[in-house]
Amino acid sequence: MPLPKTPLLAVDCVVVDGMGRVLLIRRKNPPYKGMLALPGGFVEIGETVEAAARRELAEETGVEAGRLSLVGVYSDPNRDPRAHTCSVAFLTRAKHHHASAGDDAEAVEWLGNFRRVEFAFDHRKIVADAFKLMKKIASASKNY
Amino acid sequence: MPLPKTPLLAVDCVVVDGMGRVLLIRRKNPPYKGMLALPGGFVEIGETVEAAARRELAEETGVEAGRLSLVGVYSDPNRDPRAHTCSVAFLTRAKHHHASAGDDAEAVEWLGNFRRVEFAFDHRKIVADAFKLMKKIASASKNY
Description:
alpha+beta, 7 strands, globular
């Protein structure tokens, strides 16, 4: 049986610091060129999604990811105008705060107040889901 | 920029009944032909992972999925001998218990004691993770 064609696979990282700020990049390339987005990118064949998340974060921001927690899987066929792309999103803490733009990122910033920010793709939804997960983790650790 | 090649995208369903039994299929085709596996399959372009999980479950077992809870994302490059395939696994309850084999399934069964069963792929790990998630959900609902 020939192998099927399936959606492309990507990853995104929600990196949060102790003040609740999120690490965002300004996109250098289309789609959504110039807009704020989560660090992330396509998964390579032979690479786990976790390894891809660490690699993309390091390439785009210079930041090394801590422990990764799965936020969700985002697979709406229209979420990326290039092609149907399914993204696996992770929440993580940075091992240090020194971020510098690289690869697909024109700039990189820690953003605290992103209520009025226009995000690329469905990244606003991913950030919101990541904050819900953080609350759950905090509440679960209180119960033990 | 041309679109990259990424791992294939699949879904698997851990369907559990009120007695803790799991719905398994006996695989009709290679790889792991004749072995027990979770219902699942490749995601089609234009389809969300949730829709693919419901479709594959219905095609292989005739069972309609209830609410889907994300168990995990399994992306070890060696987990499928055909090609690097990333699977998104969901936990769900069946809306009814009348299962009948179809599509890639030679037989279908509700299995209660699967400690000594040899599973196809990494499905033992996925089932174990799904049971951990069930415990978490039960414990969280007790705390509210």
